[in-house]
C-alpha cells in the first residue's frame, strides 16, 4: 500500500461534486455532541474495556521498572474516561508507584470534563495531572522551543490520529518521547471496519465537508515498518448500531449521519441523491451486518502497541 497516498488523500477529492453552499463541517462543539451520540450507540468503549482487561496488564507490566514514578502522556484524550481506566490498571499492576499523567487535548470542553471526572474520582491518590490545552503539533513545538524533552514510560493516542496535521511526523515525534522500555499505544479503526470500506470503496458518497484523514490500521503499521520500530497489533470487534440513519427525519439518525460525514445537518443540507447513495453504501455487507432487525456498522478497532 502507498502510505503517503493513503493518509494524505483527504475527502476533498469530492469538492466539485458536493460543494453546495448550505453544507458545512461540524464545529468542535458540534463534533463533541456527535461523538457522544456515536459512543451511546456503539461498543467502542466496551471494546477498549475488553482490551484493557485481557491485554493491558501484561503490556504495562514492564513499564518504569524500578522507578518510583511512572510518566504517562495522553494525546487527544478527550474527556478522560479511557485515560483513567488505564491509570487504574497501572496502579493495580504497580501498587504504590506514583503516576505523573500529562494530557495533550485541544478542546476546552473536553479538558473541563476531564478535570471534573478527576475531581470526582476518590481513588487517584499518587496520581498528578497536568493538562496542556494544545494540539499535538502545538505541544511538539512548545517542547522543542523550551528544549525540555521529557521522556514518558507510556504514551497513548486513542482514536485521535484522524485529526492531527501530519500523521508520520506526529508518530515520529511522540515515539521519540518514549523512555527506555516505554510503550506507545495507538488505537485506530481496523482495516476490517465498515469505516475502511466506506472510505476506500464508497468515498464518492462522502461530502467535501468531511475533514480529517481517512486512515486505518494498515496505514499506521506501514509507517511503523518504515520507521523500523517493533510493534504488535491486536484486533478487536466493535459495532455501531446505525439503524436510525435509515429513518428519514430521525434526530438520532441525523446526528449519526453528521458524525459519519463530518457535516452539520447532513440530512437537511445534502442533496437527496447523495443521501440516498450514502445510505445504500452503509447497508453494503462490507460496511454493516443485520442483527435482530438492527443495522450494525462494523467499528472494529486495532490496538497497536509500539516499543521504544
Ligand atoms: C474521537 S476523540 C477520542 C477521545 C478519547 N481518546 C477517547 O477515545 O475517548 C478525538 C480527540 O482528539 C482531539 N484532537 C483533535 N485534534 C487533535 C490534535 N491535532 N491534537 C491532539 N488532539 C486532537 C479531540 O479534541 C478529541 O478529544
Automatic annotation (TrEMBL):
Top-level taxon of origin: Eukaryota
InterPro entries: HHMT-like, SAM-dependent_MTases_sf
Keyword list, A-Z: Methyltransferase, S-adenosyl-L-methionine, Transferase
GO biological process, one term: methylation
CDD domains according to UniProt: AdoMet_MTases
Residues spanning the membrane: none
Residues the entry annotates as binding substrate: 44, 299
GO MF entry, a single one: N-methyltransferase activity
Pfam families in the cross-refs: Methyltransf_23
Assembly behavior: Monomer.
Name this polypeptide is given: Carnosine N-methyltransferase 2-like
Species whose genome carries this gene: Cyanistes caeruleus
